[in-house]
Amino acid sequence: MVFSNRLIRRGFLASAMAMGLLLSAPGSWLPQVTAQDSDAASKEPVLVMTLGSVNKLTQDINYVTGVAGQAQAGGMFGLLAGTFTQGLDMTRPIGMVVPMVNGMPQPLALLPTNDIKTVLKRLEAQTGPYDEEKDGTLRIIVGANVIHIQQKGDWAVMGTAKDVLALAPEDPTALFEGMGNDYDLAVRMKMQEIPAETRGILTTQLKMGFEQAMALQDGPDTEANRAAAENAIEQLEQLIEDTDQLQFGFNINQAKKKISVDGSYTAVAGSKLATMYDDTKAIPSQFASVIRDDAAAFLHQASSISPEAIADTKTSMDASMTALRSALDSQAGLSDSQREDINDLLDRLTELAVKSAAEGKSDLGALLLADEDGFKFVFGAFVADGNEVASIAKDVAAKVENEPGAPEFKFDISKYNGVTMHLVEAEIPASQDEARRMFGEKLRVHIGTGAQSMYLAFGKDSDKLMKELIDSGKKKTAADRPVGQMRMTMMPMLTYAQSIEPNDTIAAMIDALARSPDGGDMSFMAETIENGQKFSFEIGEGMLQAIGAAVQQNQQALPGGQF
Fold this sequence. Notes:
Layout: H1 4-22, H2 26-29, E1 47-51, H3 54-67, H4 71-84, E2 94-98, E3 100-101, E4 104-105, E5 108-112, H5 116-122, H6 124-127, E6 131-132, E7 138-142, E8 145-152, E9 155-159, E10 185-190, H7 196-215, H8 222-242, E11 243-253, E12 258-267, H9 272-278, E13 297-304, H10 307-329, H11 336-357, E14 361-371, E15 374-382, H12 386-400, E16 408-416, E17 419-427, H13 433-439, E18 442-450, E19 453-459, H14 462-473, E20 484-489, H15 490-500, H16 504-514, E21 521-529, E22 532-540, H17 541-557
């Protein structure tokens, strides 16, 4: 998920930085808000955050700690929740909203209760008794802050500025749609509700931090690092300006026996970033056959790339290569000819990567199969010029052939379905017993180069698996799949690991997985939406049980079976 997920990561980074700015300590840069200021509030909260109801949180935490074999931790949470939540409605979510007032964030907590006084009575040991004003507003002191509290129907609203309490909705149920009890924790952020001046504070702080960091640097890599950092900051500035909405949710789903993390990221319609997202679509793939139910792990991505993303990739790669070359120039132990060879290799790889991206698509797949009899791995990817891949490999082989312990390269040994086959063999020392059990006396890496493709495979019978991948690429495939996806299953990997080097902890994990509803699955999926992308990450119950079994096995191995 090379291109599309980089946009997601950068978007979430920019949004996380903005969120941190919004939730800064009130005394650091937020002014006091007066009555008339509330008229200058944003139309919608810039940030909405929810926790699932106390009942949901308690049940979910009890479930996950029980599955992981740590039920006592869940019991402790339930005890604390029962102690401090008396007076709350245990079936409704807890929320926080952050409206902007005169360009500044003012967080408001929303508690599901029709009797806030009972809740405050329970907390007197931590906050002291509350004061009540003539209009019914309550006040408590938390640290250095005075918290104002008002009852609004079935909800209580809390904030540091009394006049801002009027901005809280009478009933936030509609505001919590798609959040609340759908997740244990959910966050929605609307970047465009932050005034441009406030967003400018964030970019200014980024630049100040950059300048301070650069001022401390003094070495041959300084200018190269500056160029790379300036490029990164420029991209973050664009993300801060173009971001529309970020949404994130974490949930423990007992019914599906999974833990999930869902998220989405959208850009402002018509912006450069939105164009980049909208031009990232799923496409037919040469390597879709890696998506297999029997895989120990697979990774697949097939998507179009927008011209803007291509330019962005070239700029990023140029900056990264400049920094890498600078680091090589200062690396001791390399001769001038070696530096020249490495720089030439970097130039050729960069040129090939940029040329491949310029074709307007990314297509790749990787597959790992494993069991007690062995494992095999295969990788395939679209490249603009497969012959250049072979040429680079041949040049590298020629330069290292006289080096001690250099592997043996065999080029152009055969052709299969339009792909030229190559082989790299390396002796494994007799002292490396575990490696020999995995690969034999020699590590064999199979390489295939087509007109616009490259393949890599190693492991038992991996050459046959590579040919299967080549054959499948000749068939027509549909594009009705996510732009990127990944899945990993622990059971086959653990089974193979146990066959190589038996281990009590691995045996305990295998035993737990044999009784679980899945084989220890973990998956990731990225899909396109209008002006953005969404993703989901899931961990199955089996993985939790396996981890719990490993913890318990290690505890038992300690003297007295103690932590």
